[in-house]
Amino acid sequence: MKFAVVAFPGSNCEMDLVYAIEDVVKEQAELVPSTATDLSDYSAVLLPGGFSYGDYLRSGAIAQLAPIMSAVKRFAAAGKPVLGICNGFQILTEARLLPGSLQRNQQSKFICKLADLVVTNNQTMFTTDYQTQQTIQLPIAHGDGNYYCDPTTLAELRKNNQIIFTYQNNPNGSVADIAGISNRQGNVLGMMPHPERAVEAILGSTSGRELFSSLVNSVRKRGLIHE
Amino acid sequence: MELTPEAIQATKYYQGLGLTDAEYQLITTKILQRLPTYTEIGLYSGMWSEHCSYKNSKPVLKKFWTKAKQVVEGPGEGAGIIDIGDNQGIVFKAESHNHPSAVEPFQGATTGVGGILRDIFSMGARPIALLDSLRFNEPKTAHDKYLINQIVDGIAAYGNCIGVPTVGGDTAFDATYAANPLVNVMCVGLMDLTNREKGQATGVGNSIIYVGAKTGRDGINGASFASAQFDSKHKSQRSAVQVGDPFTEKLVMEACLDVIYKHQDALVGIQDMGAAGLVSSSAEMASKAGSGMTLDLDLVPQREANMTAFELMLSESQERMLLCIKSGSENEILDLFNDYGLTAAVIGQVTTGHQYQLSHHGEIVADVPVDSLATAAPVYHREKTVPEHILQQAAIQFSPNITEPTQILRQMLQQLTIASKKMIYETYDTQVQTNTIVQPGSDAAVVRIRHTDKALAMTTDVNGRYLYLDPYVGGEMAVAEAARNIVATGGVPLGITDCLNFGNPTKPDQFYELDEAVMGMTAACKVFNTPVISGNVSLNNEFNDVAIYPTPMVGMVGLIKGLNQITTQDFKQANDNVYVVGRTGNDFNGTEIQKLLTGKIGGKLFPFNLDEEQRIQQLILRANRQGLIASAHDISEGGLIVAIAESCFGKDLGVALSSTLTTAQFFAETQGRFLISVKPENKLGFEQLMGRDATLLGKVTNQQQLFVAATDGEFKLALSEAKRLWEGALACSLK
To answer: How large is the angle between the packed helices B330-339 and B246-262, nearest 10 degrees?
Structure first.
């Protein structure tokens, strides 16, 4: 299957995703510029980490206005998988594809380390290869990873099982220890940790592999594939 | 209103720009044979600053050893290149941003990162790693803490945004750096050797293209500023510091690499606009090529209104590059930059002859021989005398009186130079690009070369205290420690870059330190086969006439030929055997234990034998290649006991050790030593290979305790307590 990896000006994890998918997951990945308007050739869309437009104004705020985002919205509306990692998560909340927002880390510093996460929902297209309540290790690297939503939204997230990953030791002040959430339909996932940095043992963790394998299996099973 | 040439002469205005009477005379009588204009005197002031001309350090720099088989490009271009096989090269260089960081720490640090990145990608290499060598005061005042926090935040802000991992470096604390913090940034890049670029402007009629941020009034004449010394009035010098924009740098980097990789036919040369901005990049490109150049300053993209020619030429606005593009290909390149959302413009041409001509508002504002700017700065052979404090130093070694070993160990683990730097490096993105195998906190960082079985080990090192006591031997030790760090991770040292942070070269006792240090470093470089491929000089690091300790930062890169040879400092499992390799002496002058117990350092530096160091390092490499080593750790500041504690912390394993050394000797900083752990099945093989050079100390244990028996006492400390003290000290001191 073919993944689209959207590169905004200032993205910096796009090649990491391409390498993870091609070298480890052994599927195809293509960079798609943020000026493109069509994603119909792809089976999944990934919004990478980085500092799109320098994080100026607010993380993700300018990127959500890029031409590609209309295509991302159509892609998501069609029930196909969209994954936003780190800055990609910030873009998805700014684009209102996911509820809530990501604020400055509580202690105001950028944090880069390996974080222990709990998989709280293994029924999504992105998590079927994990066990529910499984503890996994994924690297985090962000300054604005402090997830916030109002109590009503949080209650909805809980009720609909939209909280997908939580931190074991909250590193940034996120509401309810949230590290990743999905939309109500379960086909759009935003997460601050970097699964693409955890696909090779030599780099410290392989916990990210199952996320990509879940995605590939789900796409194939649901016939969403464009070979 | 600009001064007339006559007024410049009459008021000696040039002195305020850093030019001496003799230098001004040289320009008026020999070079131009007329009085220079206001713009012209600005050009000379920038180009003849120490930062651009190396006028005080050139005779010293010539002593460096720069030629070895692996060197593809030595010092002279933006950065040097070393061949690592498979048609790949690595490019690395370090740059200091000390003066800017002292007056505006956040922006000073960010622009330090930005500048070194441009040096690397202008060579045609993609930056793959950053390292930072930082020297601060022991934080006491609010200002000390402000400097440290802001400098670290600045490095994080820039490196994280641009997507180059900050993988290592070193940080030390001493009162000598109170007014002159050192911010040295090293960048390593990877390239295909077919993409080598030069900063040259050849071919009459070819175009000079400017790309990147628009020029503003930031950092006007920053090179002269950086080359001047500070005094109590330096707070007014903030306006000379530039402001960094990593987002623009990211776009400039990607666009320039696109030009280099995919538009080779159009590209003649490319250079960063760094110190002395537009004048240094353009004059150097023309001078190196033996060309003339004309620039129309009205075409320079400008951020502010009514900028003068002087300001345009000497602004150090960041994120700007200068390219020489073949005539007829201009639109191809301008269109490419436009696609990246960047400002770019043709601002001049390569001309016949050797003149450097600038026009502004329809008038010629400068017309000087290009070589007079780039290569004709006077070179000064400074006098040297042995500093008084060295003449008077005691010949005998300090003898630590260790009555309570465990208590001293507790204190030692909290000495800021020894304590964990996690709170610093956790704010850096260490993993972006997904190649970082050994992260900060180990001897050397290790970054793999994707799609090969090779990796690069990289480190920065220097101990200014050693150099203060003996600049020659201290210089040798700086290179030796860097090599030891590379070897500990399994790498073969390839070469070094340096930042020579010193005092005032016009003072003979301070020039002595520079000259001796370089000679010591050179001796060591030859022994370790690590040529100098690039570097940077930061002189006049003095405040109210007191210089910093001589601090020549050594940045070394080594090659690890197989990923299975990568070794880390952490003990791996209980029951592994623990050895110290190398002889331990009563070596205490200039050490952390002397500082801890007496509050100062002094006396004659302990002796050092380069050949012995090299012999031990070669043995360690052999043991590594034979797969005999489970962990390896360089023994440096704080001595053997600190190395033992650090090796315990990684995997929370304890040790039970005993030794024929005294408790004091566990704090000795004798060079040429490693702490090694070896699996039981490799014990015999290791001991046979090492012979008498390895001394068995005992075993790694599952007990959470550090227990070491010496001849006159013992160290006994719960691992959890040791780790808490070591990890908490820095955060505590910055509160």
So the answer is: 140
Segment (H or E) for B707: strand B705-710
H/E stretch holding B364 reads strand B363-369
Q: Rg for chain A (alpha carbons), in Å?
A: 16
**Tokens coding B105:** 């720490």
| Rounded Cα gap, residues B154 and B241, in angstroms | 13
Cβ contacts of residue B678 below 8 Å, gap of 6+?
Answer: B576, B577, B579, B628, B629, B630, B686
- C-alpha B455/C-alpha B90 separation (Å) is 11
**pLDDT for residue B218 is more than 60:** yes
Contact between B609 and B710 (Cβ < 8 Å): no
Residue in chain B closest to A113 (alpha carbons) equals B426
| The two structure tokens encoding residue A187 | 């086909």
A156 flagged as catalytic: no
Q: Is A201 on the interface with B (CB under 8 A)?
A: no
The tokens of B722 are what?
């040791």
Return the percentage of chain B with pLDDT > 70, whole number. Answer: 97
- Domains (range + CATH), chain B: 1-66+197-377 (3.90.650.10), 394-419+568-735 (3.90.650.10)
The CATH number of domain A2-221, selected from 1.10.10.10, 3.40.50.880, 3.30.420.10, 3.10.20.30: 3.40.50.880
Mean pLDDT, rounded, for B449-463 = 97
Indicate if A14 belongs to the active site. no
Q: Do A15 and B437 touch (CB under 8 A)?
A: no
Band (pLDDT 50/70/90 cuts) for residue B695 is very high
- The predicted-structure confidence for A91-106, as pLDDT tens digits, reads as follows 999 999 999 999 999 9
Nearest to B65 by CA among B707, B496, B566, B610: B496
Using a CB-CB cut-off of 8 Å, the residues of chain B touching A204 are: 439
> Are the C-beta atoms of residues B565 and B371 closer than 8 Å to each other?
no
Query: What is the H or E stretch that residue B53 is in?
Result: helix B50-53
Helix (H, G, I), strand (E, B) or coil at A118: strand
The answer to whether A141 contacts chain B (CB < 8 Å) is yes
* HEC string for B450-503: CCCCCEEEEEEECCHHHHHHCHHHHHHHHHHHHHHHHHHCCCEEEEEEEEEECC
Closest in B156, B341, B439 to A9, CB measured: B341
What is chain B's mean pLDDT, rounded? 94
CA A118/CA A136 separation, integer angstroms? 6
Mean pLDDT of B410-414: 98
Which residues in chain A are contacts of B433 at CB distance < 8 A?
15-16
| B238 pLDDT higher than 60 | no
Euclidean distance between CA atoms B173 and B464, whole angstroms: 10
Which helix (H) or strand (E) segment holds residue B281: the answer is: helix B277-289
User: From CA B342, how far away is CA B365, in angstroms rounded?
Assistant: 28
> Taking Cα atoms as reference points, which of B53, B1, B16, B11 lies closest to residue B35?
B11
**Tokens matching residue B648:** 């315990």
At A126 the pLDDT is 97
